[in-house]
Write a structure and sequence with these properties.
The protein is of the alpha/beta class and about 325 residues long. It has two domains: about 200 residues, Alpha-Beta Complex (inorganic pyrophosphatase (n-terminal core)); about 110 residues, Roll (Diaminopimelate Epimerase, Chain A, domain 1). Helix content is about 40%, strand content about 20%. It is built from twelve helices and twelve strands. It has a six-stranded parallel beta sheet with strand order 3-2-1-4-5-6, with helices on one face. Strands 7-8-9-10-12-11 form a six-stranded mixed beta sheet, sandwiched between helices. Helix 2 runs antiparallel to helix 5, helix 4 packs antiparallel against helix 5 and helix 8 crosses helix 10. The longest helix has 18 residues. The protein is globular and about 55 Å long. It starts with a helix and ends with a helix. The mean pLDDT is about 95. Bound molecules: manganese (II) ion (MN). Manganese (II) ion binds next to loops. Manganese (II) ion (MN) binds next to loops.
């Protein structure tokens, strides 16, 4: 780890141009870890960093510090060669989206991730599958390297950890809680950050609750499946978290699947479970993610994917 951190540090020191991105359609961890690391590099090395995204940033993240500094990938010259590309929270190569040409052209690539990934693509990999979020890994890096911080960095790291743990519900070790305790002692106000995230448009919440109300239940109510039609898809904020969280609250439901008609022949799938592993099902669908929260994008109709999903869940406990 020491050697990797040294290489990481040297690469940043040497680089004259740096670009950072997370996965396509950023969530709280993906967006805020990018913004936190970019801000840290500016604070500690006085270097400008290009912050890149692809897809949509959820409205609930509009108020996070430095949000306005995010650049949509096609607003930058993709043939420009960056000295250093840093890839955060990406999971697998097909989640990188429009940042991929920058990664491919860069002299050096660093990745910091907590997803299961058998084919990491970077020159330097600071990966930790046990971490709750990339925010947690960045917190560990700055503690180790004793970097200068500021209140916005602390807020960004706290939002990373909170959003990727469902507000500290999905933690498997005490580490993220200890880090949050340190962040609170350093001035982070959890209640203020939660209110900052309560920023969804009215039509999003009304659309998502209607979709949840139309869910269907299978296998003794263990599985709930909800479908987002094409017209409703543009009203979702992020991945449809309201729907997933609502349905998971039902007593007998262990698994929730959300099928999103993204285009006529493309279906997005979000999978959640209370405790049972669902990553294998996401992988069987060509996707990835975490043990209890995973997803995939499939070139097929919602109807066909619905049948496939029911097959994959057959025999569940
Ligand atoms: Mn993450």
């Amino acid at each position: 780890m020491k050697k990797r951190l040294n290489d990481f540090l040297e690469s940043i020191k040497k680089a004259k141009s740096i670009a950072i991105a997370g996965h396509k359609n950023p969530d709280g961890d993906s967006l805020c870890s990018v913004l936190a690391l970019a801000r840290l590099i500016q604070l500690n090395f006085k270097k400008d960093v290009v912050r890149v995204y692809d897809g949509n940033i959820p409205d609930c993240l509009d108020g996070v510090p430095d949000r306005e500094k995010m650049l949509y990938f096609n607003k930058i010259n993709l043939s420009k060669k960056f000295d250093l590309a840093i890839l955060l929270d990406y999971g697998t190569e097909n989640q990188i989206g429009g940042f991929l040409p920058i990664v491919n052209n860069a002299d050096r690539v660093i990745e910091i991730d907590h997803h299961k990934n058998d084919n990491p693509i970077a020159d330097i990999c600071i990966d930790d599958e046990g971490a709750s979020s990339v925010g947690e890994i960045i917190y560990n890096i700055i503690s180790e390297l004793k970097w200068k911080i500021d209140p916005d960095v602390l807020d960004l790291l706290a939002i990373s950890i909170m959003t990727d743990t469902g507000n500290l519900k999905f933690v498997h070790t005490g580490k993220p809680l200890k880090i949050m305790a340190n962040l609170v002692d350093a001035g982070v106000e959890i209640e203020r950050l939660l209110n900052l995230l309560n920023n969804k448009p009215k039509k999003t919440v009304l659309t998502e609750t209607r979709i949840a109300a139309n869910a269907e239940f299978f296998y003794r109510n263990r599985l709930a499946v909800a479908v987002v039609g094409k017209d409703d898809y543009k009203n979702l904020d992020g991945r449809g978290d309201i729907i997933l969280n609502l349905l998971l609250q039902i007593k007998d439901v262990e698994y929730v699947v959300l099928l999103k008609r993204q285009k006529d022949n493309q279906t997005g799938v979000s999978l959640r479970s209370k405790t049972k592993p669902i990553l294998d099902i996401a992988i069987a669908l060509g996707g990835g993610g975490h043990s209890c929260a995973a997803g995939a994008v499939i070139k097929d109709t919602v109807e066909n994917v619905y049948t496939k999903v029911l097959d994959l869940f057959r025999g569940i406990k």
